[in-house]
Write a structure and sequence with these properties.
Length: 499
């Protein structure tokens, strides 16, 4: 029988116990993996093990797919009215809200992210910290996954087709039907469930704890067995088995562009399953001379590719450097109210980011700030700012996914548009200017799936999110996600035609 893991939290943010089943969640039950293997889960803030969880294999994916297929054919999908799917999603949102402190604490423990950030954004979106302490975060709208679940609970009974006019001898209409078994290599559960699909979810092998705790809420909410299945495992085993599985009709993935390519290739070589990808980015931030520099600096403090017009370059760099240094000095315990900067997620990612920093140094970029590890335990890196860069440097062209930013001076609109679009990515962009006409003009010229003007990364559940170019395929959130998780059927009915 699968084991359990109990962790006692005694932090300024949360005090309490959390018990997690460490097995695989298949068909509404906790089961041991077919092959007896385990994955060590590490606290990135300390570098020390937290616990071990079961690691699945291809055989476990096969079992999960069969459970999901059975549920789709018997107790879910088109067998369950949208109003009932919506009711269960609403119940799941209520349960998540009731246990929000616990989920935020588990995620902070497992990822090292600042509790205030997770509480306000991460758990709420089940997608970095604003610097708000826990007591302030409790008073802010923590809508997030809760909002997402409730949003799609409302959509569940509004999946509609169209009647298409032809002539009086024929009735023609469309139906938007679920795919069936959908695999999630990320948190994209709500719209897939709302539209009637069943799920095989593979959480990250590095951060599986909240997904495993979430499974308990699935049962408590009353979902039929097999609607949501969770198989822990590595990408080259469980992930590959999902991508190649002939009975999985769709895969949704969030992660690197490299892995996205592997999934697309596997999908093409198996059953041509539909694929949605939310991939990497090198999102540009553009600060014009007429921007509110203080506000721009605050919004852009997590920026990775920052273009600043020459008239305010020195002022922006000075303020940005001070803010980044303050964040770096506030690194540490993710549960401490004063913490504003967390660790990298793993030793592998720590090494990867440090390699990029070394690359920037060797290529001749100036380390304006940071460039070294922070402390002697955990996977902390000081916020790093490079100046004096060239467009051909790796630190400019490649996604680093760490606390490393480059700041580049520009003169004209035309120049910065060309610089910002000179990338294989197109996930998001940020524009800071007080000139409304310029803001709209630049927003329409930048090749990215999302553009924020005078703000950054303020997601809205009703708006789509996804990338251009190599930043992804398809869209999540809003009404657009309903199309992502359904396929259109055209029905032609003869009511008068004679041969």
């Amino acid at each position: 029988m699968p084991g359990t893991f109990t962790y006692t939290f005694d932090t300024p943010a949360f005090k309490g116990k959390s018990t997690i089943n460490t097995g695989l969640f298949i068909g509404g039950q906790w089961v041991d993996p077919v092959e007896s293997q385990f994955i060590e889960v590490v606290n990135p803030a300390t570098g020390k093990p937290i616990t071990k969880v079961a690691g699945g294999s291809k055989a476990d994916v096969d079992k999960a797919v069969e459970a999901a297929k059975k549920a789709y054919k018997t107790t879910w999908g088109l067998k369950t009215p949208g109003r009932d799917r919506g009711r269960l999603l609403s119940k799941l949102a209520d349960l998540l809200e009731e246990n929000l402190d616990e989920f935020a604490s588990l995620e902070s423990l497992n990822t090292g992210m600042e509790f205030c950030y997770i509480y306000h954004y991460k758990i709420s979106y089940l997608t970095g910290c604003t610097g708000k302490v826990y007591t302030n975060a409790r008073n802010i709208d923590i809508g997030g996954a809760i909002q997402v679940f409730r949003y799609y609970a409302g959509w569940a009974d509004k999946i509609e087709g169209k009647t298409v006019e032809t002539d009086e001898n024929k009735l023609a209409y469309t139906r938007n039907e679920p795919y069936g078994v959908v695999a999630m290599l990320s948190w994209k559960v709500a719209p897939a469930i709302a539209t009637g699909n069943t799920i095989v979810l593979k959480p990250s092998e590095i951060t599986p704890l909240t997904a495993l705790r979430f499974a308990e809420l699935v049962n408590k909410a009353g979902f039929p067995p097999g609607v949501i299945n969770i198989v822990n495992g590595y990408g080259n085993t469980v992930g590959q088995a999902i991508s190649e599985h002939p009975k999985i009709e769709k895969v949704a993935f969030t992660g690197s562009t490299l892995t996205g390519r592997t999934i697309l290739k596997a999908a093409a070589e198996s059953n041509l399953k539909d694929v949605t990808l939310e991939l990497g980015g090198k999102s540009p931030t553009i600060v014009f001379d007429d921007a509110n520099i203080e506000q721009a600096m605050k919004w852009a403090v997590g920026g990775i590719l920052i273009f600043v017009q020459e008239g305010v370059y020195d002022k922006f760099l000075e303020q940005f450097t001070a803010a980044a240094k303050f964040m770096g000095d506030s690194a540490g315990d993710p549960f401490a109210p004063s913490t504003m900067h967390g660790p990298q997620i793993s030793q592998t990612q720590f090494d990867r980011v440090m390699a990029y920093i070394d690359s920037g140094k060797k290529d001749g970029a100036k380390v304006h700030l940071g460039g070294v590890r922070h402390g002697d335990q955990g996977y902390f890196i000081k916020p790093t700012v490079f100046t004096g860069v060239r467009s051909d440097m790796k630190i400019v062209r490649e996604e680093i996914f760490g606390p490393v930013g480059v700041i580049i001076k520009f003169k004209t609109e035309e120049e910065v548009i060309e610089l910002a679009n000179d990338t294989v990515y197109g996930l998001a962009s940020h524009i800071f200017t007080e000139n409304t006409s310029r803001a709209i003009r630049i927003a329409h010229s930048i090749e990215s799936g999302s553009v924020w003007v005078n703000c950054a990364n303020t997601f809205e559940v009703g708006l789509p999110f996804g990338g251009y170019k190599q930043s992804g395929v398809g869209r999540e959130l809003g009404e657009w996600a309903l199309k992502t998780y359904t396929q259109v059927k055209a029905v032609h009915i003869n009511i008068g035609l004679k041969l």
